[in-house]
Amino acid sequence: xxxxxxxxxxxxxxxxxxxxxxxxxxxxxxxxxxxxxxxxxxxxxxxxxxxxxxxxxxxxxxxxxxxxxxxxxxxxxxxxxxxxxxxxxxxxxxxxxxxxxxxxxxxxxxxxxxxxxxxxxxxxxxxxxxxxxxxxxxxxxxxxxxxxxxxxxxxxxxxxxxxxxxxxxxxxxxxxxxxxxxxxxxxxxxxxxxxxxxxxxxxxxxxxxxxxxxxxxxxxxxxxxxxxxxxxxxxxxxxxxxxxxxxxxxxxxxxxxxxxxxxxxxxxxxxxxxxxxxxxxxxxxxxxxxxxxxxxxxxxxxxxxxxxxxxxxxxxxxxxxxxxxxxxxxxxxxxxxxxxxxxxxxxxxxxxxxxxxxxxxxxxxxxxxxxxxxxxxxxxxxxxxxxxxxxxxxxxxxxxxxxxxxxxxxxxxxxxxxxxxxxxxxxxxxxxxxxxxxxxxxxxxxxxxxxxxxxxxxxxxxxxxxxxxxxxxxxxxxxxxxxxxxxxxxxxxxxxxxxxxxxxxxxxxxxxxxxxxxxxxxxxxxxxxxxxxxxxxxxxxxxxxxxxxxxxxxxxxxxxxxxxxxxxxxxxxxxxxxxxxxxxxxxxxxxxxxxxxxxxxxxxxxxxxxxxxxxxxxxxxxxxxxxxxxxxxxxxxxxxxxxxxxxxxxxxxxx
Length: 655
Known about the structure:
Elements: H1 2-21, E1 38-45, H2 58-66, E2 73-76, E3 80-87, E4 95-99, E5 106-112, E6 117-122, E7 138-142, E8 151-156, E9 160-162, E10 165-169, H3 170-205, H4 208-227, H5 230-235, H6 240-265, H7 268-271, H8 273-292, H9 302-325, H10 331-352, H11 360-363, H12 365-450, H13 453-462, H14 466-497, E11 505-509, H15 510-520, H16 522-527, E12 531-533, E13 540-544, H17 545-561, E14 568-576, E15 579-586, H18 593-598, H19 619-629, E16 633-639, E17 643-651
Helix pairs in contact: 1-10, 1-12, 3-4, 3-12, 4-6, 4-12, 6-8, 6-9, 8-9, 9-10, 10-12, 12-14, 13-14, 15-17, 17-19
């Protein structure tokens, strides 16, 4: 922060030096050596008919005497202006009178040689090559004799009637002219050097802001050169009409570049799109002024040009302050850089309107401010590059930190994933071990029951014991049913673990499906003398018929297994909105609350039915998986010695 404040102080100090050094009291003092003091009065000739002889009349002389010049700037006026210059006594040597305003159409100087009036006529309407003194301003010889009489100056113009008049000794004028040339050369040279320097920086950095800055500087320099008369003097001396147009062309192009430079430097497209669009409007209006200047002169475009300048340049300051307050610190350099230029521009506009006196700072405000701006904007661009480098470094650091953090997070996630998969594998291995144990145990029971059946059958046949044969037949059927049920559940479970269960939903009649599966267990139902109740009404669900059959078989088998001899099993279904609830209830042995909680999760625990039937713990786990597979839900209600009720809710129709 201390370093930033130091840079800001330097920028402000440089701007102050440029303005102070260029002020009248420091470089081109109007009261300097070689300047002849004089009194100045004026007369306005709205008829444009007065001649130098006519204004010698007492009536006009009294008007002259009453109107002493306080400001030699009268704003825009098409009248003919007469000025009376009366040198103070004590100067008995030739002199040079200068009118330092290149845009005046006609400047006629009348001096009296003791017998007659001598006229010297120059102006913007004449070829500048014919001037007796080279340079952009209008200089006239005044003889030693003429200094003893009043000197009259007649000015006619269609632009600003700004008539800065100075009277010098010959040597004093040449010294003053040299200083002024050096003064303008320093500032023009400075702007040219800054343009070239930043163009070289652009070729190295490829930052568009530098190119826009160069464009604004070059065309601003061209505008200033034209306004100071150098274009007319050196480039098109025979075409005064072009001089009235081309400076607006250059000025418009300079404003196009400066408005886009502001938008690019402050990165408005990203951080302030509203102001970016506004500056596009400014650029468009400036480009329009350049185009119109090809057809209209400065007088005709005066109001339009002033309006653009008064709107555009203060808005650059406003937008810069707005960007700074939004957190873009480099915008402060930008604001400081524009201040001297806008101050100089305002002074020149006030001078053109006749609101401020004619002096160096008002005559060359644009040049002084432009040179100050060129230096300060270069500092601002340097600060911008520094800020961009810092931002890039911070982004690189953030990127590295992000990579490190991401790798750490990925490592943690990977460790968690490995831990979860390890736990899943351990659970799967434990489940597998339990199932192998159950299969080994529960397959053995029906197989043991079948051992020796052949010998017993042979014995009972020889003994003709029919009732024993029937009893053995029932046990054989029961053992085969147990084996078949176990094998079906094992096959279905194995398929579900591989996600290989097909799902082809369709509209299924629950009544037909229940009756079909109940017939498969008819022998067991009759052996335990059970009563099975089913509704007479139809019920339809939208489910996969194969997995739904497995659900019904497992729930029915479970109800038969845990029903006491002579008990009852009831089945019901009823539609609830878009779903159908199917229930199977028995009045058998029931379960404890703990068993109800774990009934769908503890597969692998062998259980025993009401008559000692073997259970595998797999059927209900598989049932829940198939219910979820069919987009349904299963619940259980049970209490010890009071029976159990399983309820399955399935979609009634296709969603």
